Amino acid sequence: MFNVGDTVVYPYHGAGKIKDMEEKDILGKKMTYYVVYFPLNHVTLMLPENRIGESGLRKTIAMEQLEEVANALKACEAPVKKEAARPYSKENETLLKTGCILDACSVIANLTSKKGARNNGLHMEDRKNLDRAKQFIISELMLVKEMSEDEALSFIDEHAEAT
Question: What range does the record give for the signal peptide (predicted)?
Fold first, then answer.
């Protein structure tokens, strides 16, 4: 499925690199684990191989998909929902949990549009979701395009325009 050295994305954690595969004896049962290092937050996780399919782990996007990412970051022209902060926040959290970069772009586009339409900025939950979405995309851009964190943030900011 995956090999040591592959760059992967783990939902809600962002992009990382498979550093190793280890076999562990857990309660008398041998299990293989992927050891994944996430450079943006300096975290290493061990993911059981037999649960990778249901975990949402995927390979990072290809360079050819960067234009699609840039387009998905553009703020939507749909009207911003009024007085629906809670359900809207939950919708954004659900999108972030999918692990799909285009869903994270959608969160940024929606919240950027919402931020532009509000006089007093975003609610705290929306700000957190916006930051999470940016960090998620930054982590993937850093590995795919070998950008620094600042360069990846600039890429996002350049393409996410308020309408």
Answer: none
